[in-house]
């Protein structure tokens, strides 16, 4: 087995899960070192970015993989890049789904000569074929996971090489998802890079995972035990005597645990999987929003004969324990209400081609609203999202892209299982991830669908027996599809896709009373809103009229229903942001699903955003609703405020409307009459001893 298979697809070949039986266990233990000892991992790996300097052509071009192919007429692009940023969000359901070609020239620096080289793609949707200098490295199927190809034998220092990539987002019955309510944007829409590591190092081709895996056991305030699995690979043509060292450091770099294996001879072109168990005394726990503290787990590979460190990998380690039962979710022994949002990776106008700054903006808004949990729907997200969740202390639901439908074939089953395995291996060490989802909204409850879901649930237990498997169901309480995962959640749109706004609570009561021991969450609920459409206390909506006020009324009611039922272990608003769904044409915005709490361009927080902020966040909140309804035709109106104050005072055109108290964060003044022309509404409130003010201006047209 060679770690640099330059001509084969680089999907993992390891049998069993991350926690399979290993061939070596570290036994040379050292006591926890003195608190004054610090550790800085040596920078041994090179990781140059290949994001810039690409040429792109939309459409198929036979022979474009050839090094001598003339791409001078192609467009110049950088990645991340998608060809559906515009046509995938303009309505009509006719966006381009087909082939796109990318080409880039690269010269390997001389200082990387003799290294093991791996070409990494963080995401390309959904089938990617990769060539270097005309040699086909392989094909990756699945549009959301990271993948790597070994290119040691393909790149020569000082010689210019041509990297060619053919990507297609055409529908493929063998690859999930087959369909969904969002645009399947094509392209190399995440980063591209090159890894250069020593020939004796941590394995790079374990489903493109980190090669070290941190299994937490017995985490408490007094101690935490962690099994540190390292997958070492010797790419030399002769054997090596190897020592693996695991060093746990706190956020300041102070060593809190340190353990090394005895030397072991690893044959040429062979792997050694080793588990070392370390204990951290009196750990500082990863404690959600209150204290998302992280240690670092550093794994060194040493050539024992030469006495040198050849490779080191550092992974986040947030120590925590969690539990789920019919009374709710607990983190580190304390109940934690999981309330939050669903998240798509789309934004306007970039589409899926998001930068790190884009992700950071998204997470600043998620933190602002006070979410304690995020469902990263409906697929594996960029690593930046999981890193930001770790740092924010937000509990994450991660999901495989099995949506709506399945194909009853071995190819589809294999592809879906592979996408789930990639999701778990690549994200195993993120402390924020607690839930692995095996799918969303299967339209059928038939035998093939249930067989696949059962297989996926078993795969989660094999790969990661400690986390909780889940599933988002919309087929009813008794559907078999809801029986395979450890817990089930429900997508419920009462008041939007049938029923009435007030039906959510009674539905939950009925399910809980029928099965008191059942654990369940609400994985989606919500309503659309166009920030340019308004009405006073609307009783409903129409296909082309999605008043912002109706979205607010629905969320006011349904959050109250959820909050009153602690046996619902989690709830997720659909969606944090408006997103592209090219087949839609509603609410005056073709191509957009407008259920977000924030507009697709992130420019506008809708009224409902502040409803949740007033309920979830401890930050002072005082917000006048209907502020974008600036042009009025009726004098009679009301003033409504969302706030976490206990009392709010309002004035219209300098005349006091009085003070209101509220226990539900909603403050309303009815019977308000506007005058012709400009009207200024001002509200004030004292929150934590500080006076806050908000103002809106409404203009009433003359008769």
Computed CA radius of gyration, to the nearest angstrom: 27 Å
Largest sheet: 8 strands, parallel, barrel
Indicate the percent of residues in helices. Answer: 10-25%
Number of helices: 7
Task: State the total count of DSSP E strands.
Answer: 42
Mean of all residue-level pLDDT scores: 95
**Low-confidence region ranges:** 1-16, 19-33
Going across the biggest sheet, name each strand in turn. Answer: 25-26-27-28-29-30-31-32
Query: What class would the helix/strand composition place it in?
Result: mainly beta
Distance between the termini: 83 Å
Strand percentage lies at: 35-45%
Written description of the protein model:
- The protein is mainly beta.
- Helices cover 14% and strands 36% of the residues.
- It has an 8-stranded parallel beta barrel. The chain has a 6-stranded antiparallel beta sheet with strand order 3-2-4-9-6-7, with no helix packed on it.
- α6 links the parallel β31 and β32.
- α3 runs parallel beside α4.
- The longest helix has 18 residues.
- The termini are far apart.
- The N terminus is likely disordered.
Summarize the structure.
By secondary structure, the protein is mainly β. Strand 20 (295-303) and strand 21 (308-317) form a beta hairpin.
List keywords for this structure.
703 residues, mainly beta, eight-stranded parallel beta barrel, six-stranded antiparallel beta sheet, 7 helices
Any chance you could write out the topology, listing elements then pairs?
Blueprint: E1 24-25, E2 54-58, E3 75-77, E4 99-107, E5 116-121, E6 127-132, E7 135-141, E8 147-150, E9 160-168, E10 192-197, E11 200-202, E12 212-217, E13 223-234, E14 240-249, E15 255-260, E16 264-266, E17 270-281, E18 286-287, E19 291-292, E20 295-303, E21 308-317, E22 322-325, E23 328-331, E24 334-335, E25 338-343, H1 356-369, E26 373-376, H2 383-392, E27 395-399, H3 410-427, E28 433-440, H4 447-463, E29 468-473, E30 488-491, H5 504-514, E31 520-525, H6 548-563, E32 568-573, E33 579-586, E34 589-593, H7 607-616, E35 622-624, E36 631-632, E37 636-643, E38 647-652, E39 655-661, E40 666-673, E41 677-687, E42 690-700
Parallel strand pairs: 1-17, 25-26, 25-32, 26-27, 27-28, 28-29, 29-30, 30-31, 31-32, 36-42
Antiparallel strand pairs: 2-3, 2-4, 4-9, 5-8, 5-10, 6-7, 6-9, 11-13, 12-13, 13-17, 14-15, 14-16, 14-20, 18-19, 20-21, 22-23, 23-24, 33-34, 35-37, 37-40, 38-39, 38-41, 41-42
Helix pairs in contact: 1-2, 3-4, 6-7
């Amino acid at each position: 087995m060679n770690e640099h298979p330059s001509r084969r697809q680089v999907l993992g070949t390891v049998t069993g899960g991350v926690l399979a039986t290993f061939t070596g266990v570290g036994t040379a233990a050292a006591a926890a070192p003195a608190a004054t000892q610090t550790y800085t991992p040596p920078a041994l790996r090179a990781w140059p970015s290949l994001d810039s300097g690409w040429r792109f052509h939309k459409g198929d071009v036979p022979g474009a993989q050839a090094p001598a192919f003339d791409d001078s007429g192609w467009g110049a692009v950088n990645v991340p890049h998608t060809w559906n940023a515009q046509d995938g969000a303009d309505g009509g359901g006719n966006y381009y789904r087909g082939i796109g070609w990318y080409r880039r020239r690269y010269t390997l620096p001389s200082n990387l000569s003799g290294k093991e080289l791996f070409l990494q793609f963080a995401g390309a949707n959904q089938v990617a074929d990769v060539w270097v200098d005309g040699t086909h490295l392989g094909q990756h199927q699945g549009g959301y996971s990271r993948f790597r190809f070994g290119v040691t034998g393909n790149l020569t220092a000082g010689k210019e090489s041509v990297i060619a990539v053919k990507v297609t987002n055409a529908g493929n019955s063998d690859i999930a998802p087959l369909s969904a309510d969002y645009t399947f944007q094509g392209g190399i829409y995440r980063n591209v890079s090159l890894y250069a590591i020593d020939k004796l190092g941590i394995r790079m081709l374990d489903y493109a995972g980190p090669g070290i895996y941190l299994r937490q056991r017995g985490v408490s305030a007094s101690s935490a035990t962690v099994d540190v699995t390292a997958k070492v690979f010797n790419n030399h043509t002769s054997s090596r005597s190897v020592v693996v060292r695991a060093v746990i450091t706190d956020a300041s770099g102070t060593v809190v645990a340190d353990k090394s294996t005895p030397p072991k001879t690893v044959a040429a072109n062979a792997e050694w999987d080793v588990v070392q168990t370390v204990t951290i005394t009196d750990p500082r726990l990863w404690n959600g929003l209150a204290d998302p503290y992280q240690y670092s787990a550093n794994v060194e590979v040493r050539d024992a004969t030469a006495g040198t460190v050849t490779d080191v990998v550092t992974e986040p380690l947030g120590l925590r324990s969690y539990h789920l039962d019919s009374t709710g979710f607990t983190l580190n022994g304390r109940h934690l209400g999981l309330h939050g949002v669903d998240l798509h990776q789309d934004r306007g106008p970039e589409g899926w081609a998001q930068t790190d700054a884009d992700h950071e903006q998204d997470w600043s808004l998620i933190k602002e609203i006070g979410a304690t949990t995020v469902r990263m729907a409906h697929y594996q997200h960029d690593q930046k999202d999981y890193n930001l969740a770790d740092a924010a202390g937000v509990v994450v639901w991660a999901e495989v892209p099995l949506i709506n439908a399945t194909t009853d074939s071995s190819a589809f089953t294999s592809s879906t299982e592979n996408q789930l395995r990639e999701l778990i291996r690549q994200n195993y060490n993120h402390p924020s991830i607690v839930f692995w989802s095996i799918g969303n909204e299967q339209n059928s409850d038939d035998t093939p669908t249930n067989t696949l879901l059962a297989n996926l649930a078993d795969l989660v237990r094999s790969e990661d027996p400690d986390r909780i498997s889940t599933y988002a169901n919309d087929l009813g309480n008794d559907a078999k599809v809801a029986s395979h995962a450890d817990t089930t959640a429900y997508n419920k749109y009462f008041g939007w896709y049938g029923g009435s706004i007030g039906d959510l609570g009674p539905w939950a009561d009925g399910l809980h009373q029928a099965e008191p021991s059942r654990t369940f969450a609400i994985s989606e609920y919500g309503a659309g809103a166009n920030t340019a459409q308004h009405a006073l206390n609307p009783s409903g909506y129409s296909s082309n009229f999605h008043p912002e006020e109706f979205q607010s009324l629905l969320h006011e009611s349904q959050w109250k229903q959820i909050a009153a039922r602690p046996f619902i272990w989690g709830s997720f608003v659909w969606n944090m942001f408006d997103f592209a769904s090219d087949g839609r044409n509603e609410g005056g915005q073709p191509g957009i699903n407008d259920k977000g709490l924030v507009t697709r361009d992130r420019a506008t927080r809708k009224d409902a955003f502040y409803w949740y902020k007033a309920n979830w966040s401890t930050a002072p909140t005082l917000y006048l609703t209907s502020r974008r309804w600036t042009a009025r035709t009726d004098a009679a109106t009301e003033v409504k405020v969302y706030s976490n104050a206990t009392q709010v005072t309002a004035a219209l055109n300098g005349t006091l409307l009085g003070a209101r108290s509220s226990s539900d964060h909603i403050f309303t003044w009815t019977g308000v009459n506007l005058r012709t022309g400009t009207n200024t509404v001002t509200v004030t409130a004292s929150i934590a001893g500080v006076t806050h003010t908000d103002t809106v201006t409404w203009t009433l047209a003359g008769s």
